[in-house]
Design goal:
This protein is of the alpha+beta class and 86 residues long. 30% of the residues lie in helices and 38% in strands.
């Protein structure tokens, strides 16, 4: 199964082989040095495959490149980032 991870303005998203969007993670840049991760969604048919984890990695990498403090708001990002800090 070919999945395509794409970046748009303040979001990363995933399309399947038929170009149907199946997952997304959105973030908002706040000022010059912060960003919130505010929404994560994965189509139920694709859950449990690590797609949201991959999206989180992409978002975190982008925001770290921009030297921004990451403030997770959505529950998925809060839980995953808390585990990485433990």
């Amino acid at each position: 199964m070919a999945l395509h991870f794409l970046e748009d303005n303040e979001r990363f998203y995933v399309c399947d082989a038929n170009n149907k969007e199946i997952a997304e993670m959105t973030f908002t840049r706040v000022g010059n040095d912060k960003a919130t991760i505010n929404h994560t969604y994965t189509d139920p048919a694709y859950r449990g495959q690590g797609i949201a984890d991959n999206l989180l990695d992409l978002v975190v990498k982008r925001l770290q490149q921009e030297k921004r403090e990451i403030i997770p708001i959505c529950s998925f990002a809060i839980n995953k980032l808390a585990r990485k800090l433990d």
